[in-house]
Amino acid sequence: MKPGELAAVKPLSTDPRAGNVYLLRGFIGIFSTGIDQLGEQINQQGVHAMVFQDDQWSSLADTIKQNYANKPHIEPLILIGHSYGADDVLRIARKLDDANIKVDLLITLDPVTPPKVPKNIAFCYNLYQSNGVFDTMPWLRGIPLTPEKAIPGQLVNANIRTDRTDLLEPGLDHFNIEKKEKIHKEVIAKVLTVCPPRQAWAAAHGLGLPALTVSTPPTTQPTRTASPTAMLGS
Questions:
Q1: Fewer CB within 10 Å, N or C, the chain?
Q2: What's the confidence (pLDDT) of residue 206?
């Protein structure tokens, strides 16, 4: 599977909606092709999304820390992962916590050996499925998450087989949960709640849209002339 481009990780995007979504595939990528499909669908909704391999998690965390630290007006930051990639997005969040970088939304699909949810995650949404006797095998099931610190409203654990049966589809298992249409729709709906249209995001931060892009001043004076009064009114 193709690795994600770390050089493209930036705190500001130019897409119709504000926000950056970083998605991680599961173990060596071969069981998480649905993460690529999900990333494409998020991009189609106007939110900038990028997909990475699970073994890139540490480099991705370091890149986000470097590019996001001490930057004003950072757009919403979303992390999504499946299986071992779900474990990894939590590890990324823990690294970002050390740099006081907030994660606006973190979504896990069937995490298998996850660390605790750190305090810098504004909202963590865990979709997983229990599988009876197979729950003893971490490569065949997902499990609920536990918070590092009890924060009201921070964490939702939703077992698809008991809590969200509306998301259950025939044949659903650990190796295809990230490919299911109902799961994709649920994830995208959560992403859109924290990624507003760019105009709304700019207005909420007291910014004009031109302030979101960096332009190079012209080397020569423009040929159009106008009176000072007209220029003030433009």
A1: C
A2: 84
